[in-house]
């Protein structure tokens, strides 16, 4: 499944049990025997309501990972907003268990762009779990996006993105293309050929996975700034899996998501390293494993039509 699709759909678990058994640090794994750990999953989006948080436990390598069966019950969960300079705790957002392993904030609270948040999870059977994130500042698509584009025409879409999201260092972007109508008859040629090579049982699953198509992580340093100091990214046609209405959603991710996604992609086959040389997944969770990360994003919508034939 496309990694970034998880950023768009918090209900889809990012945690792969076989990977998480070996996470917790980037140092070589030295544990002699399996030790159960708490798995955390939450994504904060600047300007959106504080999201639900998922808690479960890891399982041994021979056990199939099933969230409902491994859900962590009766935990005390809170997220603190930290002072920007001193990082002292300022205000607390409490959570309650809505269903097994799913914790929801007790009051509505919008994620503040640029704010620092500290997660704390307390459970009698485990050590205190914590993680911290700094939410990227708001950014936006500055140029006008055409209402209609012809697929693979010379008028390639360009995104001009404001570059103020990160105060220090550089921005890391992920661009999602979300198809409003992910039907087989609307597939673009490249992905139609891909789907034709799969059996009928896999087709429906593959169609749903292609509904959210990801660019992967894009490093700001690889793109030029225009005279106004903004980043310009040429939108690749390969990102379009379906003709019709598409939402184009660029996101700036925090360092937690950046480290997690790039290291997880290596674990899942994105490297030529042998298993003994692959580092562990980089997870920001102290006392557990998983992800507590944040992002800022903007959205543009456009209708993408075939270049020369009439719309299906």
Summarize the structure in short.
The protein has 312 residues and is an alpha+beta fold.
Number of strands: 15
SS class: alpha+beta
Q: Residue share in helices?
A: 10-25%
Output the helix-strand order. Answer: HHEEHEEEEEEEEHHEEEHEE
Provide a descriptive summary of the structure in words.
- This protein has 312 residues and is of the alpha+beta class.
- The protein folds into two domains: 174 residues, no CATH class; 114 residues, no CATH class.
- It is built from six helices and 15 strands.
- Strands 1, 2, 3, 4, 5, 6, 7, 8, 10, 11, 13, 14 and 15 form a 13-stranded mixed β-sheet that branches. A two-stranded antiparallel ribbon has the order 9-12.
- A hairpin with a 6-residue loop joins strand 3 and strand 4.
- The protein is globular.
- 32% of the residues are buried.
- The N terminus is likely disordered.
């Amino acid at each position: 499944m496309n990694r970034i699709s998880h950023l768009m759909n918090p209900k889809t678990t990012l945690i792969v049990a076989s990977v998480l058994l070996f996470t917790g640090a980037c140092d070589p794994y030295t544990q002699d025997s399996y030790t159960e750990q708490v798995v955390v999953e939450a994504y904060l989006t600047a300007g959106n309501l504080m999201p639900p948080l998922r808690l479960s436990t890891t399982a041994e390598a021979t056990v199939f990972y099933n969230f409902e069966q491994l859900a962590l019950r009766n935990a005390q969960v809170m997220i603190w907003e930290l002072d920007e300079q001193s990082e002292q705790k300022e205000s607390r957002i409490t959570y309650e268990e809505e269903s097994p392993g799913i914790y929801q904030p007790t009051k509505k609270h919008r994620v503040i762009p640029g704010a620092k948040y500290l997660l704390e999870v307390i459970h009698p059977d485990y050590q205190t779990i914590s993680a911290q994130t700094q939410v990227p500042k708001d950014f936006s698509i500055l140029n006008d996006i055409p209402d209609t584009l012809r697929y693979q025409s010379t008028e390639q879409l360009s995104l001009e993105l404001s570059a103020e999201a990160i105060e220090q260092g550089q921005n890391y972007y992920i661009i999602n293309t979300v198809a409003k109508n992910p039907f087989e008859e609307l597939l673009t040629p490249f992905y139609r050929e891909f789907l034709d090579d799969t059996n009928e049982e896999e087709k429906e699953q593959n169609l749903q996975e292609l509904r959210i198509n990801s660019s992967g992580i894009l490093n700001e340093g690889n793109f030029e700034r225009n005279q106004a100091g903004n980043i310009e990214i040429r939108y690749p046609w390969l990102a379009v899996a379906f003709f019709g209405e598409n939402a184009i959603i660029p996101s700036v991710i925090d360092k937690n998501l950046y480290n997690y996604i790039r290291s997880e992609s290596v674990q899942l086959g994105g490297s030529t390293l042998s298993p003994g040389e692959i580092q562990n997944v980089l997870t920001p969770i102290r006392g557990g494993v998983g992800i507590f990360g944040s992002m800022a994003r903007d959205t543009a919508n456009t209708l993408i039509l075939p270049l020369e034939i009439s719309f299906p």
